[in-house]
Amino acid sequence: MTDTAKTPADFWFDPLCPWAWMTSRWMLEVEKVRPVEVRWHVMSLAVLNEPKLDELPEQYQEMMRGPAWGPVRVCIAAADKHGDEVLGPLYTALGTRFHNQGLERNRETIVAALEEVGLPAELADAADTDAYDDLLRASHKVGIDLVGQDVGTPVIAVPGSDGEQIAFFGPVVTPAPKGDEAAKLWDGTLMVASIPGFYEIKRTRTVGPIFD
């Protein structure tokens, strides 16, 4: 199967979100079992929550005002300087450290992730500046405009039968399905997303993210 024959799946992520991380690991499995190519993009929980920040729990407000900005700024700076193709490997390097290894989301961890994927350590400086915020907001807006405001991360968009992109939030799943289960979830997600007027299936989560 050539790359040109693969269906593009645009995936917007914030590396801080453990549920987006689970979904992203599922998408890597989907690439193995379906003719799909994931194209990675950055969205921001800090930007998403700006309009309702005062309504959030105090601890979450503090995260959105401070620590939530750093990793997404570094990701968007890396893409700006070195191309969008670095986002997938960088996301994996960051997410493995943040979620699987439980490391602090600080400069040292970010530098280690950058160096792992062959990117310059000085990109970590972007975490503490708003120099790339316009690009970050623009990337975020593309994904949100496709799916609407009443969602979180991740957002996935795929071509519909009429050529227009079909976008959806999630799916939220743990642990990340593999093999045939990954394929079944992908097929089912596309099926329901393609139905005009379909919006949501949901049930209460009874377990947290299971990282493996």
Explain what you see.
This protein is of the alpha+beta class and 212 residues long. Helices cover 45% and strands 11% of the residues. The chain contains eight helices and four strands. The chain has helices at 18-33, 45-48, 58-65, 69-82, 87-100, 107-116, 133-147, 179-193; strands at residues 7-13, 36-42, 155-159, 165-169. It has a four-stranded mixed sheet, sandwiched between helices. α1 (18-33) links the parallel β1 and β2. The longest helix has 16 residues, at 18-33. The two termini are 29 Å apart. The model has no long low-confidence stretch (mean pLDDT 94). Pfam families: Rv2466c-like (PF22234). This is DsbA family protein. It comes from Streptomyces lonegramiae. InterPro entries: Rv2466c-like, Thioredoxin-like_sf.
Q: What is the SS-derived class?
A: alpha+beta
Net shape: globular
Helix proportion range: 40-55%
Q: Give me the side-by-side strand order of the main sheet.
A: 2-1-3-4
Q: What proportion of the residues form beta strands (DSSP E)? A: 5-15%
The total of beta strands comes to 4
Instruction: Outline the biggest β-sheet.
Output: 4 strands, mixed
Any low-confidence stretches, pLDDT <50, length ≥5? none
N-to-C series of helices and strands:
EHEHHHHHHEEH
Number of helices: 8
Rg: 17 Å
Q: What do the pLDDT scores average to?
A: 94
Spatial separation of the terminal alpha carbons: 29 Å
Key phrases:
212 residues; alpha+beta; 4-stranded mixed beta sheet; 4 strands; 45% helix; globular; DsbA family protein; Rv2466c-like; Thioredoxin-like_sf
